């Protein structure tokens, strides 16, 4: 069953300015991009800085409107939905940001941060809210005592856990993760990836996992789509892409990934040589 679909999406910025500033041509952030995500699938969206990954995430979440093209959720076209109509599906699609701290209200405690989406969607009883927040905290590996803390009183890893807790509070079907662990060290990153896997199993989630680092996604994702200049140039399983990348741009991204296995290292060198020639 298709959960999410993008059909010929385009997003061009700066077109309004060209009337005032001669020579301004605008930026084509997303360029004729189509893909679909099956229910229960984890899709890695990989590409270098500026290729349009975050813009695509905003279009999928309905935070911005595309210049042209369509977005569909469970076959329902929501491209032209108003902000208030988006409420009916926003609880099913959530996001985890690279820097959760910046997305939190600094005056809110952890309890208020996680409880906010629940209150927005109608839960009013303080006792029920407390139980739901505690249950969600436990699922992301935080303790009950953390509910009284403010965001700045948490470590970077704990802040990202609160970001995940807020995202799962409404029990969504899809979470879009935009470079969620890039500021964390390798050990912590591994723990957080394991946490996402566990939540996927427990809650039946689907993920779109945005990163510039191919090494992060090859084991975690069912498939990996490589973005280049606003479009998807290649989509394969993680394992396949690490060994048999088709597109020259994917091979260039791969050359930045450290290879542990010496046999694969030899393979990669020959592919890079082929690319250079
Ligand atoms: N609001 C905006 N107004 C004008 N241009 C924008 C806007 N948002 C993004 N862009 C431009 O669109 C292009 C794609 O940006 P985007 O942030 O989607 O890339 P990205 O792949 O997510 O990059 P990064 O990995 O660095 O976050 C860039 O050239 C960027 O400068």
UniProtKB/TrEMBL annotation:
Keyword Transport: yes
Gene3D superfamilies hit by this protein: P-loop containing nucleotide triphosphate hydrolases
InterPro entries noted in UniProt: AAA+_ATPase, ABC_transp_ATP-bind, ABC_transporter-like_ATP-bd, ABC_transporter-like_CS, P-loop_NTPase
Keywords: ATP-binding, Nucleotide-binding, Transport
Signal peptide segment: none
Superkingdom of the organism of origin: Bacteria
GO molecular function per UniProt: ATP binding
Ranges where the ABC transporter domain occurs: 4-254
Sequence similarity: Belongs to the ABC transporter superfamily.
Protein name: ABC transporter ATP-binding protein
Phylogenetic lineage: Bacteria, Bacillati, Bacillota, Bacilli, Bacillales
């Amino acid at each position: 069953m298709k959960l999410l679909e993008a059909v010929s999406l385009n997003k061009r910025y700066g077109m309004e300015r060209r009337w005032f500033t001669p020579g301004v041509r605008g930026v084509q952030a997303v360029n004729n991009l189509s893909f679909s995500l099956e229910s229960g699938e984890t899709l890695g969206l990989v590409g270098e800085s500026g290729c349009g990954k975050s813009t695509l995430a905003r279009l999928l979440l309905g935070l911005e409107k595309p210049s042209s093209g369509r977005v569909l959720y469970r076959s329902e076209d929501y491209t032209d939905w108003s902000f208030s109509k988006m409420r009916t599906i926003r609880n099913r699609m959530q996001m985890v940001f690279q820097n959760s701290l910046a997305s939190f209200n600094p005056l809110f405690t952890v309890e208020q941060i996680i409880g906010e989406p629940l209150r927005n969607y109608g839960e009013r009883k303080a006792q029920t809210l407390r139980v739901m927040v505690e249950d969600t905290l436990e699922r992301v590996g935080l303790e009950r005592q953390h509910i009284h803390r403010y965001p700045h009183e948490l470590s970077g890893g704990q802040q990202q856990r609160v970001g995940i807790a807020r995202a799962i509070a409404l029990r969504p079907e899809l979470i879009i993760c935009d470079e969620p662990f890039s500021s964390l060290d390798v050990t912590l990153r591994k723990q957080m990836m394991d946490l996402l896997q566990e939540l996927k199993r427990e809650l039946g989630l689907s993920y779109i996992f945005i990163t510039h680092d191919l090494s992060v996604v090859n084991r975690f994702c069912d498939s990996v789509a490589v973005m280049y200049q606003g479009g998807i140039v290649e989509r394969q399983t993680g394992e396949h892409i690490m060994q048999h990348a088709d597109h020259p741009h994917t091979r260039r991204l791969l050359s930045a990934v450290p290879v542990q296995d010496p046999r694969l290292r030899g393979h990669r060198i020959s592919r890079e040589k082929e690319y250079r020639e």
